[in-house]
Amino acid sequence: MGIHQKSGKIDIKALKKTTTLTGPFLRKKQIRDNELASIIKGEDQRLLLLIGPCSSDNEEAVLEYANRLAKLQEEVKDKLFIVMRVYTAKPRTNGMGYKGLVHQPNTLQLPDLINGIKMVRKLHYRVITETGLTTADEMVYTSNYHLIDDLVSYHAVGARSVEDQEHRFLASGIDTPVGMKNPTSGNLNVVFNGIYAAQNKQNFIYHDAEVETDGNPFAHVILRGAMNEHGENIPNYYYDCLLKVIADYKEMHLSNPFVIIDTNHDNSGKDYLEQIRIVRQTLINRDWNEMIKQYVRGFMIESYLEDGRQDRPEVFGKSITDPCLGWEKTEKLVEEIYQTLAD
């Protein structure tokens, strides 16, 4: 019974010392962060793509993917702005299974969270400094935010965390965009209340201190589908769903209304190939309705080097969590989105 300390505490200053952005790398991130903010505000009309592996389980595979993605970003930069998913903590419905790089820096070994934290910083740092891309991560643990706050450009609050008050309050103090997913029930009131909380000033206890936030005007919704009591998937990227989301934004008078479609999870039923069709359908809906085009300006896509998933890390660059689009299909999809926007 009880909590038992396994190892020493993290020396945060020492941890950050060798992985702090300086010089041209810091300037590059600042420029891209400003561009991302302009996209959320609607001043920059490029489409936002949050794309990358379901879970960043292997440093070298993630870096190989990042280098390919950086080259693709250059080819489509006038129409698309890409932020790479470098998701290092994996929420688990029943608390079991692979929980991400932060828990297991080596997927073939036992959990090692101290070295996991070090690996998380190192990976975000390497992606930025070696490819020029900025990164997104999911805020599974609010207590870990300060360990990567200077490196990550986009934070997601997942379906199981969006009702949590501490996630909402912390989101209100983050200086970069925070995407908040609808809960697994699909209840939009929940996510919009979360966005409202995140966009307003809050005060709470954080790391044993009383803190006050300014509110985050860049908090916004991510539609990831839902699941009913029978375990059936209920997509929420359809035309009428988007109109309902837009109406909710208007009714609540939220800042910088912005909608991202999560093309996997309960929208696709975790059929990774469905992501292609969902993107196509959403682009059609944007063309049909000017209001949808104004609000729906981003996609979240799960993609890795190889198609599908595997139970054990045997194939390099193949997901060990949710199935992902492989690189060949990813490249074609991004080029298709670009061409559709260019036509």
Automatic annotation (TrEMBL):
Enzyme nomenclature, EC number: 2.5.1.54
Pathway: Metabolic intermediate biosynthesis; chorismate biosynthesis; chorismate from D-erythrose 4-phosphate and phosphoenolpyruvate: step 1/7
Domain of life, per lineage: Bacteria
Limits of the DAHP synthetase I/KDSA domain: 35-333
GO cellular component: cytoplasm
One Pfam family it belongs to: DAHP_synth_1
Top-tier EC class: transferase
Presence of keyword Cytoplasm: no
InterPro entries xrefs: Aldolase_TIM, DAHP1/KDSA, DAHP_synth_1
Keyword Amino-acid biosynthesis: yes
Catalytic activity: D-erythrose 4-phosphate + phosphoenolpyruvate + H2O = 7-phospho-2-dehydro-3-deoxy-D-arabino-heptonate + phosphate
Keywords: Amino-acid biosynthesis, Aromatic amino acid biosynthesis, Transferase
A GO biological process held by the record: aromatic amino acid family biosynthetic process
GO molecular function, one term: 3-deoxy-7-phosphoheptulonate synthase activity
NCBIfam families given in the database record: aroFGH, PRK12755.1
Function per UniProt: Stereospecific condensation of phosphoenolpyruvate (PEP) and D-erythrose-4-phosphate (E4P) giving rise to 3-deoxy-D-arabino-heptulosonate-7-phosphate (DAHP).
Protein family membership: Belongs to the class-I DAHP synthase family.
Protein name: Phospho-2-dehydro-3-deoxyheptonate aldolase
Lineage of the organism: Bacteria, Bacillati, Bacillota, Bacilli, Lactobacillales
